[in-house]
Amino acid sequence: MSTRNRTIASIDIGTNKITAVCGEIEDGGVTVIGCSTQPSYGVKKGVIINMDSTVDSIKRALDEVERMTGLDITVAVTGISGSHIKGISNTGVVPLSSREVKKADITSVLEAAKAVVIPTDREVIQIVPQEFVVDDQDGIKDPLGMSGVRLESRVYIVTGAVAAAQNVIRCMNRSGLKVQDIILQHFASAEAVLTDDEKELGCALVDIGGGTTDVAVFSQGCIRACSVLPIGGNHITSDIAIGIRTPLAEAEELKRTFGTACPDHVESDATIEIGCIGEPGRRTVSQRTLAQIINARVEETITLVQNELIAAGYGDELPAGIILTGGTALLRGIVDIAQKILGMPVRVGTPLRVRGLNDVKSPVYAAAVGLVQFAARGCMLEKTASKRMFGFLGVGERMRQWFAEAF
Question: What is the mean pLDDT of the chain?
Fold first, then answer.
């Protein structure tokens, strides 16, 4: 197979699906030239629990993308999520070596800000500079060249379980891929579906996957809080299977075909035929019953999101509202329920600023496309100070040593 310059591949390892995307950096943007989604059987609540199954799914997704693009893909970026993800805010302060802020001062203050004590089984995954303060002047995004005697940095530090990250790397390597970087899933999805205005004004990204729901709050252009809830679309499917006694596979199909989170939107006499667990033949159930089951779980999920926003101090301070993404965001009526509970504007987020295959312009591909866009932005900033000072400092620069120790 041939290879092309400036191509980036991503692998999104999810609870329900493994998604691979390949894009080319063109004219400062990304053109998607290949994509594939394969069922995932080795992941639970965002964490790998079966290496062999996960590797098989990655290989199938990768093979399909290679056939579509004609490329031999050996390097890829990937994401990480799961309930082990934790975020904390911290500050660092250094005196200026001269009365002008230099690159070395910025490096020093960021090093000071990330000097936090964390358990030995956890590691820093990403550090996000939020703002700088020169003397008493705050809200500075780029302090380089400014005059002062004291430089302070305010950062958001994301940590995760070392073992969970190492398992991601092991699966990628066993699939024949070298990991270019590992990126927090929240950041990848945000890169794909949020606008700069939304990040500046204040918004919350809610990525509802199969086993987890990622919540990230943005304000003044930076992330302010993030968390992972151990609940997702699979819980809706399970509730349907239990509530109307039907196999899980059929419950998933019912959710996709007939499901809605708003029972009032369903005709009272509407019915559907379903299969029974352990019994031959089919029987009839009310569509409204199906909607009531879905509604209960969706309301619980959105209420948990609301609690996370309140705990972060943003219960009613998000002018740009809520952006839902992930496969469950396609569920009919979920936007109405979210608006009712949260009391904010809500929209469904699909990948923005992406060219090429139309298939990826769906919430299902938000994280995978965001991984490519995130990595592409890093490539474009590679030769500037911006990547270190203002971008998301990725895992590749800080965790290379303990990755090596894992193998």
Answer: 89
* 16-30, 294-308, 380-394: range with highest mean pLDDT: 294-308
Q: Would you give the DSSP letter of residue 335?
A: H
Tokens encoding 237? 């499917």
Contact 173, 179 (CB under 8 A): yes
Helix (H) / strand (E) containing 91: strand 86-95
pLDDT the model gives residue 381? 54
**Strand boundaries in 209-310, DSSP class E:** 213-219, 222-229, 271-276, 279-286
Q: Which residues contact 388 (CB under 8 A, 6 or more apart)?
A: 106, 107, 110
**Beta-bridge partner residues of 227:** 215
Instruction: Specify the 3-state DSSP secondary structure of 251.
Output: helix
- pTM for the model stands at 0.89
Per-residue tokens: 266: 């369903």
Say how far apart CA 190 and CA 352 lie, in whole Å.
10
Task: List where CATH 3.30.1490.110 sits in the chain.
Answer: 86-162
- What is the reported pLDDT for 136? 85
Query: What architecture (CATH level 2) is domain 86-162?
Result: 2-Layer Sandwich (3.30)
Q: Which helix (H) or strand (E) holds 13?
A: strand 7-13
Element holding 267 (H helix, E strand): none
CATH superfamily placement of domain 195-350? ATPase, nucleotide binding domain (3.30.420.40)
